[in-house]
Give the backbone structure.
Amino acid sequence: MSLYEEYKTTLQRITDVNFSAALLSWDQETYMPAGGAELRARQQATLAGISHEMTTSEALGKLLDQLENENSLDEKQKANVQQTLKDYRRAKKYSRAFVEELSACISEAFNAWQEAKAKSDFKIFAPKLKKLVELKRKECELLGYKEHALDALLELHEPGLTTKDVELLYNEVRSELVPFVKNIISKPLHSQDLLHISYDKGKQWDFSVHILKQMGFDFNYGRQDISVHPFTINFGAQDVRVTTRIDEFNLSDCITGTIHEGGHALYEQGLPNSEYGLPSGEAISLGIHESQSRLWENNVGRSLSFWKGQFSELKKSFPEQLKNSTAEDIFSAINVVQPSLIRINADELTYHFHIMVRFELEKALFENKIQVEEIPAFWNQRYKDYLGIDVPKDSEGCLQDVHWSHGSFGYFPTYSLGSFYAAQFFAKAKKDIPTLEKEIESGNYSSLLKWLRENIHQYGKRYEAKELCERVTGEKLNFNYFMEYAKEKYGKLYSDK
Ligand code: CO
């Protein structure tokens, strides 16, 4: 066996372990009986331990050192080896003691967060969070960074992204999107009543399956189930699973959730199966993953063209409820812009203000400009400044998201990045496919999927996000594309108001 074959086999075996653990997670979120939780935690810990040992083994290190100096590799193989070396060297920076301390701290913080949120009392969470932030600061030091401690954590989720990059993006959000939204919300709201009458759950489910099929999701290599929070998980390109949720009195919840997860899933189904286990068979980053889900959810699924193409099908399922409505009515109702407290329910414009608050807060925290105890006051002031709303209690404020209790700092900006990349990719797709709008109006998304496959999916992790963006669109990530999209769509939507 050649060295490269040996490397490939080793990585595939690690991936087998990781995907087996992922399958247990999927089961836990969907069908596992409540009583199974204790043993499941044990099984997951065992698999995580095995995976960690394999990922950091001396044998793999030696193999990578040899391969780094191997001249017979082609460009793709070299890129794979470089990526694995980077991952390997990073994993080796963590001592076993640090990993165990961090993992114990995260479980305590998670439990404290749950109680604090239920009682809406930040003081219950604060001491655990303080300890967690200290450990995460240590992690930044051991990982290393050039300018800002937070860079080390951003790198984990979005390789190549720096605190400076994110600051520059939010400067534009602050100077352009904030005043644009202020103007929109000064106008009367479109009615959303249409979305909140009774819609049979079974029929909503059938419609969501219909949409997934139309998008090109392949049910031979995937399935959809129900869970509390929708998510996508995969065990290779040949088994990709999405979940959705259905609320009888909220028509948009299931549809937009399914389209969003469908976008994530199409990316995973489009990764090259021949590269299983290798970086070239993996998604690039959280930001690029989110660009795929947001492109389908927002640029496609919340467009008038999409609803022109799908309305008659939806009306077949709900003839009574929709007898006096049009595609335009659905389009207006699912695009209402309104400042709100809860991030996951936010519209696609004010959503970025929620993320901006979290980023500013994390930055201040890691620069030691604020202490953990000051988080609620900092949070509430920013919500007043950017969204113009008062936060009545911490459970609807700084305690709403689970992420910090998991130690996920430097994570939130990837959500904004996803939307901004999506706008830029979609603008390029429209340029490359002049008939795209017309096709979407007729419920045909095949050229769009083909474009995404050819330009993004097939490369796996071959390029970093920044490089991919330049290769696909000819320029760096540029916030103007999102702003143009927002102006065109919401300018029209609110012009008659
Ligand atoms: Co997503």
